[in-house]
Design brief:
Length: about 350
């Protein structure tokens, strides 16, 4: 595996920056327990934890923190699969079962936040792989990460499909008292049959919506990234209506739809799955995604319009992409909010 070649970004002089971690910093562990059967953990000591998003990216943020690589959620469409190839790890089953754990992430982040070179920019988490995947239950990296952000009053946002975020509820409330915090949960659909086949390692959509409800009950507003909307499998009008209705019932502050996109690495894995489970749709997908990773604009706009109309019908406010949401704690004087906001990947 190319541990030494994994760099943060190319140096301006054509040479590589120092590797994020070296081969001597890697420990491989396999836990033979029912919870982690078949999962291998590569424990590494990272040399950098603050990642700058490339300028050409469509992301609405500049900095991310990713304590894990690979994800046991095993979502067949996950766009982050290609990143496993940088380590010479398999982007299919390997992405689901070979998890890289940056065990020094909390301490390293605290040091980097204290640097005079850091100016307190917004940090997004959960935008590559889920920081609250099952491995977090063992390694407990997020409490230290959130505490470091709290202590430096550094704004941040978290996107997750995991219910484990509720473990850190008190820390999130403490952070929200001193900085801007945005929390979003990803729920693209509520169809149980579709969930079991495309997101087999995730908590059910109902449990994720319980997270939205619980956070709201504790004074932490939570938006929903309705992602992905899967063409021909999760985009029927009745499915969209049922999903938005459930999101509204959970008390989400906003809902932002995102149509499935199929980047290299994810595309091959998803299309293989599609050919096995829904072979009659292969041709339709090849035509819909003939121009690249994204569905045509007309299709994206249609889904967005439908979801926004449903959101208005069910009383969910519009979203403002890319902004961190101020969470007001119950015991504090409420602060004026311009409108509901939502982390968006577009």
């Amino acid at each position: 595996m190319r541990w030494e070649n994994l760099t943060d970004r190319a140096a301006g002089n054509g040479e590589r920056d120092p590797a994020l971690f070296g081969a001597d910093a890697v420990t491989i562990r396999t836990f033979d327990t029912p919870e982690f059967a078949g999962i291998t953990f590569h424990e590494v000591r990272a040399r950098s934890i603050l990642n700058r998003v490339p300028g050409a990216s469509r992301m609405p943020f500049e900095w991310t923190v990713n304590p894990y690589r690979g994800c046991t959620h095993a979502c067949v469409y996950c766009f982050a699969r290609k990143t496993h190839g940088y380590l010479d790890l398999d982007t299919g089953v390997g992405f689901d079962t070979q998890i890289v754990v940056k065990v020094n992430a909390p301490d390293l982040l605290r040091r980097q936040l204290a640097s005079h070179r850091w100016h307190g920019e917004h940090i997004a988490m959960g935008t590559n792989v889920d920081c609250y995947q099952r491995a977090e239950g063992r390694y407990r990296l997020m409490p230290g990460i959130i505490a470091a952000l709290r202590d430096h009053a550094n704004p941040f946002s978290i996107l997750t499909k995991g219910t484990l975020i509720l473990r850190d509820l008190d820390l999130l409330r403490q952070a929200a008292a001193v900085t801007d915090v945005g929390i979003s949960v990803s729920v693209g659909f509520t169809d149980p049959a579709l969930w079991r086949t495309v997101e087999p390692g995730t908590p059910s959509p109902e449990r994720r919506l319980d997270v939205v409800r619980t956070l709201g009950e504790h004074g932490i507003g939570c938006g929903v990234l309705m992602a992905p909307v899967i063409p021909f499998l999760g985009d029927h009008a009745d499915q969209l209506r049922a999903t938005v209705r459930s999101i509204a019932a959970a008390g989400a502050t906003s809902v932002t739809p995102l149509v499935l996109h199929l980047r290299p690495g994810a595309r091959e894995w998803f299309m293989a799955w599609l050919g096995q489970h829904h072979p009659h749709l292969v041709g339709r997908y090849e035509r819909l995604y003939a121009e690249g990773a994204y569905a045509p604009r007309w299709y994206q706009r249609r889904i967005t319009r439908q979801v926004h109309e449903l959101a208005e019908e069910f009383g969910i406010g519009p979203s403002r992409a890319g902004a961190a949401r101020r969470i007001t704690l119950p015991e504090r004087e409420p602060e004026p909010v311009a409108g509901p906001t939502q982390l968006s990947l577009l």
